[in-house]
Amino acid sequence: MLDAAFFDQVFWGNTVMAYCLFGAILFLGIILKRIISKLLSKLLFKLFRNFSQQSHDDAFVALLIKPISLLIQLTTLYLAINQLRHPLEVAIFHYRKLVGKMKIAVPVSLGDCIDRIFLFLIILSIFWIILRIIDFISHVLLYKASLTNNKSDDQLVPFLKELLKTLVIFIGFFTLLGFVFEVNVLTLITGLGIGGIAIALAAKESLENLIGSFTIFLDKPFVVGDLVKVDGVEGTVEKVGFRSTRIRTSERTMATIPNRGMIDGVLENLSLRNSRKVAFTIGLTYETKAESVRRIVTEIESYINGHEGTSGDGTASFKSFGDSGLIVEINYFVTILNNDAFLDIRQEINLEIMDIVMRNQSDFAYPTQRLISDHIVPVASAEKEVGNDTTD
């Protein structure tokens, strides 16, 4: 059996007992780290149980287990290292400190440096835990927002999340300056002077984008999920962030537009329209008689306005004489906004227009050639408007 004298033996400046305690603390920290992390996460979750109203404990534990594990690991490592005396007490450098009117050399040991490093890492892990708690709160709020028909809360939650996390990061930064580097934060802030003005000027665009995000939330020109068009970019709003708005375009690409551009530019909220316009022209052959053109125009207009999917104020008219055909202009509005239904209605109307033209002894014009005196003389190509289909 080992006696006390064995543990009192000194090797390389430390007793055997100190080495045993060092190893035991490290071993327990490694073995119990994950178990303690889960227990602490679940205990902390009880504070938010009433807030969540649902069983989100798995999501909460998943978010917090890594930062809490890091905090436990740092704490056990710090406690283990502090069981040793050598070489922690060895001075590695000196710095001059003003005491009264005299400057004295203050030794800084390896242990002092390790203390500062551990304090730095522990503060980081604590603020990491706070950031993860903010992530969990936003997760619950987004879940609650998804249960409502109002899209404004879906847009507001990610913005508030970014805002809170930015504030926490700033507070963490100044906390590190104050506790680790012993900087007088109030003196630093008040002493920025010209440097603060320079920083403010450099951050001018960021501030404008931040103000733009508040304007978007207050004025509500659009919400997440709306189809918008701004500065030639058309797509669905996916996120309104701290600095920019993200839009998923029709090509499935992600466009990021600064919030200032969203409020300064001409923005069209296509989701707020009550109909979709269809405008195009067709060309009839020159062999078509005037009476047939009148019937074609009248029947097309009558069919469009009688269709249940249109607004009833469509028009069809003989517009002009083209290079290779008689140009008929057609305009109407589809009141059904669903894209698939819109395409079906437009196709149905187009097919009926083809039948109307054929029933009235006419045909669609296309570029042709005539043989004159054994020379091929090309007829000018059709006017650009023939067959030009634009849909809003």
Task: Give me the secondary-structure topology.
Layout: H1 4-7, E1 10-11, E2 14-15, H2 16-45, H3 49-52, H4 57-81, E3 91-99, E4 102-109, H5 110-146, H6 152-179, H7 185-190, H8 194-202, H9 204-219, E5 227-230, E6 233-240, E7 244-249, E8 254-258, H10 259-264, E9 267-269, E10 276-284, H11 290-306, E11 315-321, E12 326-334, H12 339-359, E13 369-372, E14 375-378, E15 389-391
Antiparallel strand pairs: 1-2, 3-4, 5-6, 5-9, 6-7, 7-8, 10-12, 10-15, 11-12, 13-14
Helix pairs in contact: 2-4, 4-5, 5-6, 11-12
Q: Provide the residue-averaged pLDDT.
A: 82
Helix residue percentage: 40-55%
Strand content: 15-25%
Class by helix and strand content? Answer: alpha+beta
How many strand elements?
A: 15
Largest sheet: 5 strands, antiparallel
Write out the strand line-up for the largest beta sheet, numbering strands in chain order.
Answer: 8-7-6-5-9
Calculate Rg over CA atoms: 37 Å
| Form type | elongated
Helices and strands, in N-to-C order?
Answer: HEEHHHEEHHHHHEEEEHEEHEEHEEE
Distance between the termini: 91 Å
Integer count of domains = 3
The DSSP helix count reads 12
Could you explain how this protein is built, in words?
With 392 residues, the protein is α+β, with helices and mostly antiparallel strands. It folds into 3 domains: 4-147, no CATH class; 150-163 and 175-272, SH3 type barrels, CATH 2.30.30; 276-391, Alpha-Beta Plaits (2-Layer Sandwich), CATH 3.30.70.100. 52% of the residues lie in helices and 21% in strands. The chain has 12 helices and 15 strands. It has helices at residues 4-7, 16-45, 49-52, 57-81, 110-146, 152-179, 185-190, 194-202, 204-219, 259-264, 290-306, 339-359; strands spanning 10-11, 14-15, 91-99, 102-109, 227-230, 233-240, 244-249, 254-258, 267-269, 276-284, 315-321, 326-334, 369-372, 375-378, 389-391. The strands form 5 sheets. The chain has a 5-stranded antiparallel beta sheet with strand order 8-7-6-5-9. It has a 4-stranded antiparallel beta sheet with strand order 11-12-10-15, covered by helices on one side. Strands 1-2 form a two-stranded antiparallel sheet. Strand 5 (227-230) and strand 6 form a beta hairpin. Helix 4 runs antiparallel to helix 5 (110-146), helix 5 runs antiparallel to helix 6 and helix 11 (290-306) runs antiparallel to helix 12. The protein is elongated. The model is unreliable at 380-388 (pLDDT under 50).
